[in-house]
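Q: What residues go here?
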């Protein structure tokens, strides 16, 4: 028997997750015995696991049965997930097993953006005007009331899927159809939200909440593009970013309004006239390697902190580095078939600040940009750079991007 505590991870069965969650599982497995519940036999995860069960995490009964089986085999200390779709089922499982968790009802409030907006308004958290609708006619009425431009988004989804800016009433019918298709796949809600467009830079605040006390660890500055969609193209984390002091109180207020008491949160907002306005709260480690950027920039290990909090242990959030780290996400200029993807080997070997280059697509893969596709169907990979300050890491990211060789045959 291992003397280390055992944490149960609930995660999607996704072979591509190795590119974005591998760093987290490796870090957790360095300190915990990890058991997994996923919808398929583990592949890349297997090297980091001591046990696993195959069950559909979206099926609460099947998840509970698998959880009880693993609890009989191991002395479980906590339950965690980094998969957006499984946040509520994982919280319910933790409660069933008597383990630390934010109340499932509060997690559901994070997942349902309409509920979030209501709670933000009730608690005075600066947010966007928002109307929940079921039909195109209701959306048109809400758009006129809020004033164009507006944003349409699924009430329950993730990764900017189905999110689109609408500049005029003439654009609304096509945009509504686009968002409604995505919203129909929602779990907590199938409604569409019509929201005020927040005009300003987008950031996220990476937070850790333990026993009701929240620490804002870092702020991530984002580059968003591909209008009228909101695809995230790049992120940068700077341990010395003065903006953290401005956005941290608003992020903390948002988590308190939702009732979040345990876990890692990725709190998204925009700065309108320099003032933070909430977009949404994601009750998990941010995607796109943001947790790794935070570790490179500050030394704070969010993946380990997530396991610590899940197991009722106080996380170590003491910064040990003062630098910056940036990620540049690699997309094609147009949809088509990927024929070439590489980086100049001599350049990469001489750039010690190029932390990694990861390609998640192979030659022959089809790449589909919005509106027909999304980040999952279009992204080729990413590169990560470091530097003393954000500007240095970003400049190096641009330089490394120029040394990529990407060729796509148009669809």
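A:
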């Amino acid at each position: 028997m291992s003397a280390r505590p055992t944490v149960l991870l609930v995660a999607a069965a996704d072979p591509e997750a190795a590119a974005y969650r591998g760093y987290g599982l490796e870090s957790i497995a360095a300190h915990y015995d990890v058991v997994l519940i996923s919808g398929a036999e583990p592949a890349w995860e297997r090297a980091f696991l001591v046990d696993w069960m195959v069950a559909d995490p979206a099926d609460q009964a099947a998840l509970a049965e698998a959880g009880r089986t693993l609890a009989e085999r191991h002395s479980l200390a906590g339950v965690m997930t980094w998969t957006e779709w499984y946040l509520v089922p994982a919280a319910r499982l933790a409660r069933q097993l008597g383990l630390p968790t934010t109340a499932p009802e509060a997690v559901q409030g994070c997942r349902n953006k309409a509920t979030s907006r209501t709670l933000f308004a009730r608690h005075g958290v600066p947010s966007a005007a928002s109307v929940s609708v079921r039909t195109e006619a209701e959306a048109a009425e809400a758009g006129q009331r809020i004033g164009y431009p507006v944003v349409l988004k699924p009430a329950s989804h993730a990764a900017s899927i189905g999110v689109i800016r609408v500049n005029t009433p003439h654009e609304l019918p096509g945009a509504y159809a686009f968002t409604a298709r995505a919203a129909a796949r929602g779990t907590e809600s199938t409604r569409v939200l019509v929201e005020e467009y927040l005009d300003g830079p987008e950031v996220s605040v990476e937070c850790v909440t333990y026993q009701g006390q929240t620490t804002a660890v870092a702020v991530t500055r984002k580059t968003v593009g591909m209008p009228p969609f909101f695809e995230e193209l790049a992120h940068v984390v700077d341990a010395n970013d003065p903006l953290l002091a401005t956005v941290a109180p608003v992020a903390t207020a948002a988590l308190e309004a939702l009732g979040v008491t345990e876990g890692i949160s990725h709190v998204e907002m925009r700065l309108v006239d320099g003032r933070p306005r909430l977009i949404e709260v994601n009750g998990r480690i941010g995607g796109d390697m943001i947790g790794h950027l935070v570790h490179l920039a500050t030394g704070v290990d969010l993946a380990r902190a997530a396991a610590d909090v899940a197991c009722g242990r106080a996380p170590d959030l003491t910064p040990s580095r003062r630098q910056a780290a940036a990620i540049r996400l690699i997309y094609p200029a147009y949809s088509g078939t990927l024929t070439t993807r590489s980086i100049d080997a001599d350049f990469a070997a001489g750039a010690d600040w190029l932390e990694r280059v990861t390609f998640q697509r192979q030659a022959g893969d089809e790449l589909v940009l919005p509106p027909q596709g999304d980040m999952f169907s279009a992204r080729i990979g990413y590169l990560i750079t470091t530097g003393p300050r954000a500007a240095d890491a970003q400049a190096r990211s641009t330089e490394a991007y120029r040394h990529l060789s990407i060729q796509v045959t148009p669809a």
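A: Context that may help when evaluating the design: The chain has four domains: 6-101, 103-122+199-322, 129-196, 323-411. The chain is about 30% helix and 30% strand.
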